[in-house]
Amino acid sequence: MTTPGTDSDHRVQAVVKTLDVLEALWRSGGAGVTELTDRTGLPKSTVHAHLTTLKSKGYVVQDGDEYRLSFRFLTFGEHVKHAEPLYEASETPIADLADRTGERVLCSTEQNGLGTVLRASDGPRSVTTGIDVGTHTYLHSSSGGKAMLAYFDEEKVDRIVDRWGLPGFTENTLTDRESLAAELETIREEGIAYSHEEYMPGLSGIGAPILGDDDVVYGAITVFGPTHRLENERDVSDLQNHLLSATNTIEVNVMLS
């Protein structure tokens, strides 16, 4: 399957197949040749050849008939995280915000038009969402993602929408450009973004951008939880203040790093 926005004529197909096998192994948590053949749609002989090569380079381990990703990927993951200034700058503010709100707090950044969660911290009443460190998200469907989009220039927003579209996840997801543009304008005016069950039914979020000089976008923070708790009018003001305080602390930390 061709990734939206890529030029398949310039892709090295052998590399694409290797990555397809790696992604299938990651999603399955470990699998044999037959299962990977079903998941990737590649011939069994091709899957076996790529697994043999990956195993010889230490990227895959074999236990009987099952293959798994090796610990070598930890090295890449740790390098990528620590090379991103936002990762270090957000550690304490994210944990403090989770403690104050009681909810799950995410710190994300944008790369290649998608959001990527860099940090996640759970408060005492957090709910399980399946969204964790490394999860990629569509920017238009979350409060943090919309907070970032609001401060990108119009050309960048257009490129992101052209590449990834505006897929709907629930009946509340913004799926047309006009509605998205209007909401991004409101976010710029208020400095706060909201999502009302736009990614998962029953769960809503409040987000704010993490900005540098000249409104350069470093990322965003999202407080994510059950709709009935996050949209309780009595708690909204305090929640906004805690959120903005955390983003301000992270912005200072990034500039000092």
Count the helices. How many? 10
Number of strands: 8
Rg, nearest Å: 20 Å
Strand content: 15-25%
Give the terminus-to-terminus CA distance: 40 Å
Order of the strands making up the biggest sheet: 5-4-3-8-7-6
- Overall mean pLDDT stands at 90
As residue ranges, the low-confidence spans are: 1-7
Shape: globular
- The percent range for helix content is 40-55%
Largest beta-sheet characterization: 6 strands, antiparallel
- Give the SSE string: HHHEEHHEEEHHHEEEHH
- Give the helix/strand class: alpha+beta
Note down, in words, how this protein is organized:
The protein has 257 residues and is an alpha+beta fold. Helices cover 50% and strands 19% of the residues. It has helices at 13-28, 33-40, 44-56, 72-83, 85-101, 143-151, 154-164, 177-190, 227-230, 233-256; strands spanning 60-63, 66-69, 104-111, 114-121, 136-137, 193-196, 203-211, 217-226. The protein has a 6-stranded antiparallel beta sheet. A two-stranded antiparallel sheet has the order 1-2. Strand 7 (203-211) and strand 8 form a beta hairpin. Helix 2 crosses helix 3, helix 5 (85-101) runs antiparallel to helix 10 (233-256) and helix 6 (143-151) crosses helix 8. It is globular and about 60 Å long. The two termini are 40 Å apart. Mean pLDDT is 90; it is low at 1-7.
